[in-house]
Amino acid sequence: MRSAERTTVVAEAERVLRQNWRQGECDGTPYSYTEPSPHRYPWQWYWDSCFAAIVWRRTDPAKARAELESLLAAQRPDGFIGHTIFWHRPVSLLRLAFYNVASRTSPQTGTIQPPLLAWAWRIAVGDPAEEPRIGAQMDWLAANRDLEGDGLLWILQPDESGLDASPRFEPVWGWRSNGRLGFPLLVQRNRRLGFDARRVRERGHPVLCEALVNTMWSLSLQALGRPSATPALVERLWDERRGLFIDEAQPGGARSIRRYWRGPTWVNSAWMVWLGMRRLGYEAEAQRLADNLIATVAREGLREYYDPRTGKGLGAKDFAWSALIAEMADPNYERP
């Protein structure tokens, strides 16, 4: 049964990636990317593309490279790459209040996602140091989001973390957090401030030094051959007594903690935990995590997320980053 489930989820991952693949041209610039989910998420999302490229490398390395190069094709001259890129049509009026754009005609959002590109390029393509545009993005992040000069990045909205509506952000942004009624007001305020983290903090509004963003930042720094931010991350956010990383908000230095996650299971999060467990030698625990998730995906398909108690698939269907299940189902895959 386990073997059949593994075969099923690998085939389903490949099917969804092929189905969700989009190609075209925008103002003379060619693009190729994997839609996160047909109809529900039609544009190119930054870290979704990084995860998709990691899986694409298994069967079509050219698509893996094209996916990441499309992110670079959207890069501004100063090195910035946005959270979402609107290649073939602008953000809809319905979503405008919730999307971090200067105007409806903006080609991309003015906010970031966890900076995964250099690490994903290392896994899926090759040495990111050979692509100067990746270094330029890292330089922009260091110049604009390292607000304390210690090498760590700060975010100005919960969705920049990739965790969106996690309850961990409610002590910082309160009723303006993602998924709460006031979130459009947070977007509107940050839009007025040009999505500039320094301006946001100078006006007395919260910014956050968040653990996941800085973990991804450290992985990308190392992939690029630059010094890791891990020592600074441990120094600033690690709480030895609790055995947890605790995010820090500024101004004021407030710390917030929620020990238990009351939300869904995401395949990308599980994949990263699985990687860490294997590298630390917890092979049996990693295998148990993988087996349970493989069984869930074989039954429910590639969904946006899953109920952590029942395994019921929730959110968008045919969700591309859930194709990472193929990495757990067939970890020793080698392309012919």
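The record above closes out task 2.4. Task 2.5 opens with a second protein, given below.
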Amino acid sequence: MSEGASAEFATAAARVVERAWEQLCDAVTSTERADIRTRLTSSGIETCARLRGMSRFPGLVPLLDGLSGDAIDVSWREWGIDGWELTVLRHNEAAQEAHLLAMGAAPADAAPSAASRPKEFVTDLLQPSDAASVGRCFLMVYGHAYVHPEVFSPRRLLAEIERGEVISVVTRDSGGEVVGHLSLRRGPSPVVAEWGEAVVLPEYRGHGLLERMTDRLFEEAPRHNIKGIYAEPLTVHTFTQHSDERARMPVCAALLGVNPERFHPKNMPFPTAGQRQSYLRTFRFLIAPEPRVVAAPVRYRDILSSIYQAQGIPFEFVDSVPPAAERSRISVHSNVRGFGTITFDEIGCNVELELARSVNDALAFGTKTLVLSCPVDAVGLGMLVEAARAAGFFFCGIGPAFAERTDVLLMQKLMDPLDVGKLQLLTVLSKQLVAFIDSDRESLTAKIQVAAGQNSG
């Protein structure tokens, strides 16, 4: 485990393994078998635990107690017929920076002076020798508060590129120094990728570098069977929204409160202070999309029509039919930033109880924002939407081509107050979407208050 890491970091990994194993064994009865596997990554220590039998999630909770106080991402899903799998990633920011510096990146205060270099640039695919300098750029602009910690680890970034998970381009100045980066990260489906991980050093802004890197990525994407590209621009300013507008990427969703307040560029105006950070989601198809069948409730059809028309997606609304499956197929993820997702791949007859169980599991880890997703043509979608609204979820948009064969409907639940009036929005469609989301959220609040009054009476 110590290969490629400091002795201190490897020792910390060994201690986590020891704690996790002891506590997992304590949680398992004599009739159960447990399996735990741990690996050291460039960003932390990943532990995967599996239990068979009826223990399910409660039997794994003691594993997390041994990690209290650490920065962790947690995800869990069903495993086989009667098992459950929990994966924990413990982050180590100090190790990330030490690893970055060991790979040859200059410290943040040793950045090249823009004034001393001519404004001549080359934009091309990232080369292995560029990876450490990419991390330095992100440290300068964001510090450690960046949503994708992979950019701080040259080895991890290069491995993702080698596996085809990431396509990265950089811009170098006339001296060969990396001054900008942009990437496509494949997922959540194999044919779409996120356009992001964008950074340009402040001294080099105003030269159209982001646009140059965007054009290079869009040229490269079809060679990797990527059919659509999405981005999640900030709402603390409209700069990245301008870039998406120029790239012909209309908004398709608004993700409220998905990151802590500190997740914003340094040394910039901060109009959303006092609340968690929100993002838009924009999308563009690179090839013409197939027609969609959408089993959405009537209350969401007008806003969905606006989104689908803006995306150029042919669609047809149909009435939802009751679910036929006995059980739902669900996966849940909660990360260190307080953001969680609940994904319904199939809707079962007992959807209300299954949704409530998944929400309670996510909230047990301090989740502040939950996003619920389900294919737009899923059998039982209407029942899921009503169950979600009863649980406090409101509409937030769609994920085009995010499912294997179609789009996903997205809903959200917030645990903290959030004022959408603070968000900086550029386009008419983004303002229309956020206004609808706020109205849908307010209608749920009124409904809950009415129900509370009836119960007290």
